[in-house]
Amino acid sequence: LWIKLQINFHIVSLLGIFILLVISDVTLFVLFLLIYVTTVIGNLGIIAAVWLDSQLQTPMYFFLGHLSFLDLCYSSVVTPKMLLSLLSERKTISFAGCFLQLYFYAAFVITECYLLAGMAYDRYVAICNPLRYLILMSKKVCVSLLAGSYAVGLFNSAIFTGFALRLSFCGPNVIDHFFCDGPPLSKLACSDTSLNQMLLFAFGGFNKVTTISVILISYGHILFTVLRTGSVLGKAFGTCASHLMVVTIFYGTLIFMYLRPSSSYNLGRDKIVSVFYTMVTPMLNPFIYSLRNKEVKNTSFIDAGLICCTFDS
Per-domain residue ranges for the chain? Predict the structure, then answer.
């Protein structure tokens, strides 16, 4: 494979395409396909449950439905192309396709950061200001928080992608990764990438600090309220446990991947971490929320029963 890639390096550069350095492997294809199918079914199940069940027409489930949508989107931006590369001899992606993948992947991930912060604020209002919950978390407020999350995500991603487009790639255009991510692309550039690195730290750091601060402040107030009242300790933390678990997994992998010096990048290790947050995390989120949430679990069982009855008939 490597000899074949070396022979075609010059042609690749002239044609304006990148080669994804993905080794063909049927076993990995089957494993990743199962993960992706599970991700699609699980997240579509959450979306359908929130959309169809009148008991789930609340701000918390409004955000949960959109979290599943974002998980489905950023996994779908990456996984299908990777699955194709695992089976096909042709492991190329056009310049346009590469930067579109980078743009939408970054947009969905950044949007999810702000959505998770919005979900933490929702839990804070529900537990600390229950009597004013329907006023503070009205439909207008929820839609505004969601729209703001998407606006920030799309804007940030446009900046990242725009500065990535200004880089010069002199070849060989071989991305040692399974999708077009920022760090592997920067390693291919033959022009100065210091401004790109600075923007990644500045905007990435701002996004993480801002959203994590909202989450920590929200849960700090929740903890104070719970300790003060005492009697609702178990119930209050039960409603927050799923969100905290998702936040820990999601932010842990993102901070490890992007908020560190470029000199510490290890593409072999980073590939494994990337598989976790692009494929495994979106698969786990529906199960985390379903297993720890009675309303979602009951709805899932009802939907499963209806599906079974439909097939039986």
Answer: 2-312
What does the longest C-alpha to C-alpha distance in the chain come to?
A: 70
Domain 2-312: which CATH class? Answer: mainly alpha
Strand, coil or helix: 297: helix
Backbone angles phi, psi at 19, to 5 degrees: -105, 125
| Pairing mode of beta strands 92-94, 17-20 | antiparallel
- Does residue 126 contact residue 239 with C-beta atoms inside 8 Å? yes
What is the C-alpha separation between 300 and 119, in angstroms, rounded?
A: 21
Cα(203)–Cα(14) distance, integer angstroms: 33
> Three-state DSSP class for 129?
coil
Q: What is the pLDDT of residues 118-129, one digit of tens each?
A: 999 999 998 888
Which residue has 């990644």 as its token pair?
A: 200
Q: Residue 308: which pLDDT band, with cuts at 50, 70 and 90?
A: very low
Mean pLDDT of 179-203: 83
The 92-94 sheet, strands edge to edge: 92-94, 17-20, 174-175
Rounded Cα–Cα distance for residues 206 and 21 (Å): 32
Q: How far is CA 49 from CA 86, 238, 286, in A?
A: 33, 20, 11
3-state SS, residue 85 = helix
> pTM for the whole thing?
0.84
The secondary structure element, H or E, covering residue 92 is: strand 92-94
Closest CA to 71 of 26, 105, 100: 105
Residue 256: both structure tokens together = 């490890």
